[in-house]
Design a protein that fits this description.
Blueprint lengths: L11 E9 L2 E9 L8 E6 L6 H5 L11 H7 L2 E6 L17 H19 L4 E6 L1 H12 L4 E7 L9 H7 L2 H5 L3 E3 L2 H10 L7 H14 L2 E3 L1 H8 L13 E4 L9 H10 L5
Parallel strand pairs: 3-4, 3-5, 5-6, 6-9
Antiparallel strand pairs: 1-2, 2-4, 7-8
C-alpha cells in the first residue's frame, strides 16, 4: 500500500480523559481532520514498561512514520491509545500492582468513552506484549466492542519462553513492591534482551527518552502475572477475528505456545 509522507504533518492530536471510579485515565487521539469517512477506529494497548504515547506516537527526527498512530491516521483511521492505570499521565495513587485484569478494566472504560465520543461501533484493538494480554482479556469480556483483535508479542501459557524463565527468577523481588524502578539504561536493555541490533539506535534513544520523560518506575502487576499466573485468557472465549504476530527473535512469545493458542480460536476469519 502506498503511503504519503506529506500527509503526516496534517495529522491532528487531541488529549482526552475518562474515569474508572476515582482513577483518571489519559487518552490520546490522532486523526486526519479532513477525512470525511473514517475507515475504522483503532485502540492501541501498550506493554509492561512504557506508557502509550512513547510506544505508539514516537517522534524520531528525520524518520517519517516513527509513529504508528500517524501512519494509520494517514490511511484514514481514527487512532487512540490510553495510558493504563499506573503509567504515564494516568492515575498512580492506588496501592495496587496494576495487573492484567486491571488493564482490561481500563480498556473497558476507555472504549466506552471512545464509542460515546465518536458514536462509533466496534473498534480494532491492537495490543503488544502484556498489552496483548490486556487486549485479549478485554475482548473476552466485551466482544461486542471489538471488530478485530491483533495480539503482538503475545504469550499464552509461557511454554518455551526463555525470557519469562529468566524473569521468573526475580518473582520474589517483584512481589515485594507494587512498582519497580526504570531508567534510560533499562529501556535500552529491552532491545538487547532477545537479540541485539534489531532496531535503529536513534529509535531506541528516542524511545527511551520519551518513556523516561513520563515515568521513573513501572507497576509490577503484569510481570507478576506473566511469571506466575499464566494462562490468563481462554482462546475459545475470544470470538472476534484475531491475528497473532511474533517478531523473529521474540524471547517471550514461544512459537509452539502461540500455535496452540491460535488453533483454539473459534473465529475462522
Amino acid at each position: 500500500m502506498m503511503i504519503n509522507a506529506h500527509l503526516e504533518s496534517a495529522v491532528v492530536g487531541e488529549e482526552h480523559w475518562t474515569e474508572k471510579g476515582d482513577v483518571k485515565l489519559f487518552m490520546w487521539n490522532k486523526f486526519l481532520p479532513d477525512t470525511a469517512e473514517k475507515k475504522g477506529t483503532i485502540l492501541f494497548v501498550h506493554g509492561s514498561s512504557m506508557a502509550s504515547q512513547p510506544t505508539f506516537d514516537l517522534h524520531v527526527e528525520g524518520r517519517p512514520f516513527s509513529s504508528a498512530m500517524n501512519y494509520f491516521a494517514t490511511l484514514g483511521y481514527d487512532t487512540w491509545c490510553v495510558d493504563m492505570e499506573g503509567y504515564g499521565r494516568s492515575s498512580k495513587h492506588r496501592d495496587i500492582t496494576c495487573d492484567i485484569a486491571n488493564g482490561a478494566d481500563d480498556l473497558a472504560a476507555a472504549s466506552a468513552y471512545i464509542q460515546n465520543y465518536r458514536n462509533c461501533g466496534p473498534m480494532h484493538v491492537y495490543g503488544i506484549s502484556s498489552g496483548a494480554l490486556r487486549a485479549a482479556a478485554f475482548a473476552e469480556r466485551h466482544p461486542e466492542r471489538v471488530a478485530r483483535l491483533a495480539l503482538d508479542a503475545f504469550v499464552w501459557t509461557g511454554e518455551g519462553s526463555p525470557t519469562l524463565a529468566d524473569r521468573t527468577k526475580k518473582l520474589p523481588q517483584f512481589l515485594e513492591s507494587n512498582r519497580r524502578p526504570i531508567d534510560y539504561a533499562f529501556v535500552q536493555s529491552i532491545f538487547n534482551r532477545d537479540h541485539p541490533d534489531c532496531v535503529e539506535p536513534r529509535v531506541v534513544d528516542a524511545f527511551a527518552a520519551a518513556i523516561c520523560a513520563l515515568d521513573d518506575s513501572m507497576p509490577n502487576g503484569t510481570y507478576i502475572d506473566m511469571c506466575s499466573r499464566l494462562p490468563l485468557v481462554d482462546p475459545e472465549k475470544i470470538t472476534v477475528p484475531t491475528i497473532v504476530l511474533r517478531g523473529q527473535y521474540d524471547g517471550i512469545a514461544g512459537v509452539p505456545d502461540l500455535l496452540k493458542f491460535f488453533e483454539k480460536l473459534p473465529n475462522p476469519d
